[in-house]
Description:
Layout (H helix, E strand, L loop, with lengths): L2 E5 L16 E5 L5 H7 L4 E2 L8 E9 L5 E9 L8 E7 L5 H15 L1 H4 L8 E5 L17 E13 L3 E15 L3 E18 L2 E19 L4 E12 L4 E14 L12 E4 L3 E3 L1
Parallel strand pairs: 2-3, 2-4
Antiparallel strand pairs: 1-7, 4-5, 5-6, 8-9, 9-10, 10-11, 11-12, 12-13, 13-14, 13-15
Amino acid sequence: MLFTFSLLKAQTDSSAISRNDAPNxxxxxxxxxxxxxxxxxxxINFVRDLDDADVKIVVxxxxxxxxxxxxxxxxxxxxxxxxxNDIQKFNSNPDDTDEKIRxxxxxxxxxxxxxxxAKTPFAETIDIQFTSSNTEDVQDVSDxxxxxxxxxxxxxxxxGEESYKNYQYWTNLSADRVTENWKIENSIGNNYSESRYTLxxxxxxxxxxxxxxxxxxxxSLGEHWSAGAWFSGSSSSYSNRQYRFAISPAIEYNLxxxxxxxxxxxxxxxxxxxxxx
Length: 277
């Protein structure tokens, strides 16, 4: 389902409309392909000087729990568009190509600028077309995994020479769930390393093993408060530690709203740590 915008040929009263009637946009985005956007959005004037801009856009990015990225697009109106501010989001998947991400960001910025273009004479040159061929009602997509994301990591490494050999392998399993109200992260893993030294006719073997398990559970208490706890258990022959357990309850206050975290945040956290080994 897509909305596309195209320039219409000027007619009658709109014949005097020029590119100067289009809004001027100052784009602050280090990951954006500006030349691509200029070609795809001829209904916007991209300017280099902030003082010349009617609209300023700032794009920030952060990783998501699913392994993708969330792009936050902040629109700030200036001059005649003063106080016309907005925030839009674009989410990419872990396997999305750079081209697909570039198209997605460009589409969201183009859609976001329509509210500003609509207040200019240049709106007479814009036509909106619905390009989806599916006329059936849109159905809600159910998440069979209930927002859970699972990851399995297996690794091995080896090197050696005539008198020395080393083998190592490790595993890690994780299960994470991030929603508007909860953030839950679980992980468990182990590491095994074996070294062999050959001196004359004698072989010396050194083995180290480690195990660990962690859990982080955080509950949102609103736009400014959250509370949760972190638990960790581990053992390590290298550290000569049979076991170690730690728990850390925590409470956090964010001076700004969590929904603004990609743009600004000032957090205060209290987290005592209790451990036993």
